[in-house]
Request: fold
Amino acid sequence: MEIKLSESFLAYKGFKYLKISVAVLIVTLIAYLAHDPGRTPNGGTWFGYTFGVISAGLVLFLAWFGVKKRQYMSGVDLLKGWLSAHVYLGVLVIFLSLFHSGFQLGVNLHSLLWYLVLFTVLSGMYGVFCYVRYPSILTGTRQGLTRTEILLELSELDLQAREVAMGLGDEINTVILRAAQGTQVGGSIRKMLEVEPKDCPTRLALLFVDGTSVSGDEQETALRKLSAVLTRKAELLRRLRTYVRAATLVRLWLYFHIPLSIGALVALVAHVFAVFFYW
Amino acid sequence: MAADYKIAIIGSGPGGLSAAGHAAELNISHVLIEKAAHLSDTLFKFQKGKFVMSTPDVLPLRSPMPFEAGKREDILGNWDDTAAALKVNVKLSTEVIGVEGEKGNFTIKLGDGTSVTAEAVILGIGLQGNLNKLRVPGADLPHIQYQLDDPDEYELERIIVIGAGDAAIENAVALSVRNTVYVLNRGEDFARAKPANEALITSAIDAGRIQPIYKANTLSAGEGTLTVETPEGEVTIECDRVIARMGASPPRKFVESCGVVFPSDARNALPECTEQYESNVAGLYIVGALGGYPLIKQAINQGYEAVEYILGNAVEPADGPILKSQISILNTDDVEGFLKRVRESIPIFSNINSLMLREMMVESTVHKFAPGDVVFEKNDYTNSFYVVLEGAVAVVLDENDHEKRIVIGLGNYFGEMGLISGRRRTATIKAESNCVLIEIPRRTMIKVRGNSPDVRQALDQEAAIRQIQTYIAPDVPREDLIGIAKSSEIKSFKLGEVLFNEGDEADSLHLIRKGSVSVSKRLGGRSVVLNYVASGNYVGEMGLVSNAPRSATVTAAVACETIQIDGAVFKNLMASNLKLKASVESKFKDRITQNERASQAGTGGGILQFLLEQGVSEATDVLLIDEALCIGCDNCETACAETHEGISRLDREAGPTYQTMHIPTSCRHCENPHCMTDCPPDAIKRAPSGEVFIEDSCIGCGNCARSCPYGVIQLASPENKKAGILSRLFAKSDASEKAPKKAVKCDMCRDIEGGPSCVRACPTGAAVRVAPQALMQLQGKAS
Ligand SMILES: Cc1cc2nc3c(=O)[nH]c(=O)nc-3n(C[C@H](O)[C@H](O)[C@H](O)COP(=O)(O)OP(=O)(O)OC[C@H]3O[C@@H](n4cnc5c(N)ncnc54)[C@H](O)[C@@H]3O)c2cc1C
Ligand code: HEM
Ligand code: SF4
Ligand code: SF4
Reply:
């Protein structure tokens, strides 16, 4: 916008949570470096415990976001503020938990927790990347039309194509009919991510029409008209598919982020349980 | 010669039917004449299964015709049965084309050339008017229709829609989903329609979904064809169906032809009637919607009462109990005495007709205030009108200085500025002494003003003085302003109409009292919007100060009203008042700088122009989405639905976009809400903090949805959230079990702490709510 009315969650309150995160990181890093546990650093020291509690608290706070997001009725605050905190404090967890464990990673339940958290965080970071990258693609491809309007326009082009094809051969008519009935946008995840699928009946129809030659002025005009209609449809389809792809990607990562975060929560409970009962 | 009947009743809506029922019940010779082939055509045309409401609940029903809230079919069925049981003498399929004669001997002329005579006539023809029909050879062929109930009924047909108004566009667009649609337009554009509909049809035409035929005149119809004259010549189009939506002519002409007089030309003017519903034509009574009573129950009661009055019986009007409860605060139940007192002590109401006064009081509230009580606060958005019936109030000019106040005494009024402009209150009003005030709702007062030229003139004059004082010349004594107000003129401008053009002679100043205007200039061959000026400000001072021709063109951005002050008069005033001169000159300098900057920026006006074109200047709060941030998660819509009975009141994706600024379809809480104008139970209200909301008394008639130019009102039945999952699973999905459909729209989450849920729930910060005035002024300064 020419006038800055809105403020992204990333910039919320002048990057308040970014600043907090960086400050916490610097302070804890200095503390970590300055602290001499007297033996191999691990989670068992008082220092380790402190970081452990903070990290666990943070993970719980991060997971709370899922609840917060659904509390539409209550809460005076903006969700974007929560997301801002979620994002910046989320990255912090990786460092704090490393300080907690003294960078000891192996192949055990405790390390599994850390990897789960790591992948949750990484998926979250990818999510932020998506939130920054895809909005302009989403709107750019629609060019002011709604999805329904694009679909309506597509079916209108189908009607036109079939009308023009009427005077041409059976073969063309079959291809056109298939293009009208068989062209799909979306469907499986793979389809939703494809912008120009090779087997798209409309694309095939266009190739077929452009490769066909006919005789007679009338027929030639019809063929040219048909090619034009199909080209328009193909272009519209490309736009719609670009849109669908962006809309899918901007959401798809959450299907990793949420299960990973649930996994991390479960592992966290197991970790705490194991620490208190078996050590 | 004795008349055929004692009473002839024209129109069998709730009003006429009730009158006929009562006459039949009393064994009085009567005839009920109805144009349609069934009783009560207006209700007959309601959507199938529509739930009809019996507002106002406090009003008792008096009539042999039963009526309680319920399904359209049940109500119509009951009425048919009752009419048959009472042996109502009804002539269906008979249109009345004229009424002549006088009390005791009326001749009612019928469409088939015959006529009947009666001693008295009750006119209950409602407000639906006559659908304009095609008047060409073949117009009565079966493929030509004038109504479209369900667009989904037709498929793969070739359909011609005639007309360029909202109904035609809505039909054409809905049909175009499954049919080939042509639109015949006599003109060259669709500017007459609401902007939302204009956008809809333009995009449908651009996308090739609808074929327009412009400058077209229908010549004739044949079996499955329509012949049309176009600039290219005559064409005959084969078609399966023709839907002619050419509007309806309001019944006013017909009523006037019966000799009935209307007090003014205003659109909402009502025929002048006595308290007994008798018009200026003695013996001719007017009941129901035609007389200004837009609800079924009112119409039914009036039908009953009119028959009683004709028989010379005195009946207490049904609104008696309501009025009694209104004035109970004054410890009296003498309604007549109270009405007399209002008329005698409040000069602007001294001449209004009794029926109107009564109706006004039914809708008003009587308040008692103690000294120091606040009546309303400065910057509130409340918009009712007050008159002082006892005691006095004071306009607070300075919160800290008790001396700075203007006292408004007995018989005077206040609140007229908000009434006109729809803007925030300009000052706080406190009770000066113990006082009694009558609060009249905005819509009621507008109706009174529209129907009484006296009230209108008195109000306009006084308002002009107060407005000039408030907005231009606070230091000029009132006496000096009276003359100026008298010599000035109230002007109305339609959207897009020009107040004055760049280069015109500067002969006057406009104080905008309602709406807003845009200021534009020709730069490099095209017109560029430089600025926007809201109501409460003046334009046109530049030419007066500099003695030069107009330096810019000023156009109404929405429908406007201005007080046009003569240039010479204004110059005189400036010469005699140095403070005023200084303030006008400083505004002049500001504007020069601002215009200069805006022209330098050149295209800076783009976004301003976009906002103005989208009517944002009449909004008080608009939802915007920054498309550079929106991820399309629709959490805003989910939040809206979650907090509002399962129905989202916003459509994020729809609506216009400029660069990355998107205006989704959602209520803008307009300064002068269009939606309020035709709401029968007056259910649309504005809260002190500005939000426009719909009360439970909504009857679901859909008028507001039609009036809103921005298409933000839907008719929906709330989801039954209280029912448990199990009962919802096993409940039969019977439509009639659903709650009745009512109008729903954004209420700015007025009952939810923290404000609009859409904005709160947006994870990315894309959704924001802004006061457009601030937005546009910001733009003016920024560029
Ligand atoms: C969609 C919609 C929904 C509504 N819902 C409600 C609701 O839920 N509750 C409520 O209280 N109100 C509702 N209303 C308002 C209600 O319909 C009217 O207040 C009521 O119908 C007015 O009654 P009436 O008798 O004055 O006139 P109408 O009901 O309009 O009846 C007039 C009759 O006169 C006939 N007529 C007209 N001209 C002639 C002529 N020249 N010769 C012979 N006959 C003629 C017409 O055919 C018609 O039958 C709704 C209105 C609409 C449009
Ligand atoms: C252990 C760490 C984390 C946990 C447990 C966690 C958990 C969650 C949960 C439960 C949600 C709600 C999803 C939903 O209901 O829709 C969520 C959303 C999200 N998280 Fe995380 N998260 C973590 C770390 C991060 C990090 C580090 C980032 C970014 C750097 C991040 C970015 C996001 C984003 C962008 C969303 C989507 C917000 C929305 O669209 O509503 N997360 N996370
Ligand atoms: S519903 Fe009323 S207030 Fe809201 S945008 Fe429409 S006309 Fe304006
Ligand atoms: S909640 Fe925000 S990001 Fe989501 S769709 Fe609405 S405006 Fe866009």
Observations:
- Chain A touches chain B at residues 1-3, 5-9, 11-12, 69, 72-80, 83, 130-131, 134-136, 138-139, 144-147, 149, 152-153, 156-157, 159-160, 247, 250-251 (CB under 8 Å).
- Chain A is about 75% helix and 0% strand.
- The pocket of protoporphyrin IX containing FE (ligand 2) is lined by residues A 59, 62-63, 65-66, 69, 83, 86-87, 90-91, 93, 117, 120-121, 124-125, 127-128, 131, 254, 257-258, 261, 264; B 633, 763 (CB under 6 Å).
